[in-house]
Amino acid sequence: xxxxxxxxxxxxxxxxxxxxxxxxxxxxxxxxxxxxxxxxxxxxxxxxxxxxxxxxxxxxxxxxxxxxxxxxxxxxxxxxxxxxxxxxxxxxxxxxxxxxxxxxxxxxxxxxxxxxxxxxxxxxxxxxxxxxxxxxxxxxxxxxxxxxxxxxxxxxxxxxxxxxxxxxxxxxxxxxxxxxxxxxxxxxxxxxxxxxxxxxxxxxxxxxxxxxxxxxxxxxxxxxxxxxxxxxxxxxxxxxxxxxxxxxxxxxxxxxxxxxxxxxxxxxxxxxxxxxxxxxxxxxxxxxxxxxxxxxxxxxxxxxxxxxxxxxx
Length: 313
Known about the structure:
Distance between the termini: 36 Å
Radius of gyration: 22 Å
Number of domains: 2
CATH architecture of the largest domain: 3-Layer(aba) Sandwich
Largest sheet: 8 strands, mixed
Low-confidence stretches: none
Strand order of the largest sheet: 3-2-1-4-5-6-7-8
Shape: globular
CATH superfamily of the largest domain: NAD(P)-binding Rossmann-like Domain
């Protein structure tokens, strides 16, 4: 494997350890920083254990010991970011803590090195607006754990330089992560807004005595979650109705609007919005190929069910 640039991970919690494993498995030297040496030691044990699991499930060809050897630790921030090619901040979701850390890192990091936050909710414009190096700052929000959920939201601030975004997305792709460009800063970005919508309704259903916590988790695990592991909500609607997503919106839209109104939500699927969604789906899948894609979806579900049966034995 060709030599890769050094990645500095600031914060050795679960997200930091996950990023470290991901980048080390992709061939990068990684410096993992935490103010507490014992947390770094614990993270190294986690990385070694998870690397062994990846090998056991045939998800990584690199020997676990080699992955572990690529990760070093540093309790000194300046040492951690020295000559780094990318810096990934992973400290707790606290605005003032992150702002202070970004200021320190901006003063210490090599010129031009991107500084990314793993924040789940806080946009870069609230973290770095006053920094001299703000053009190299952005959010790269992963799923947890990053080494298994192979997507990450890339959320530039209005002041983030285009070359910073492009360089960061290239780094992610090289590590096997699909970058999802978020076009505009909104709290929670896309991942947590979608997740939050499901959680809000789940809490309401428990509160209203409609279903138990266990039954909701079971339904998600065996139904929506299983389906969404292969295709997303828009493609699900598209493939569930002959005629595609436009037909789905015509038949189901009024019911969804009534359910939303029960929760005080007024976000109708207007004809213009449905047309925009349908146009994007038809560009991805012409209706002439609809039946073939449905059959593919079913085969993917069969593969997932088979894999689950094997894993649960």
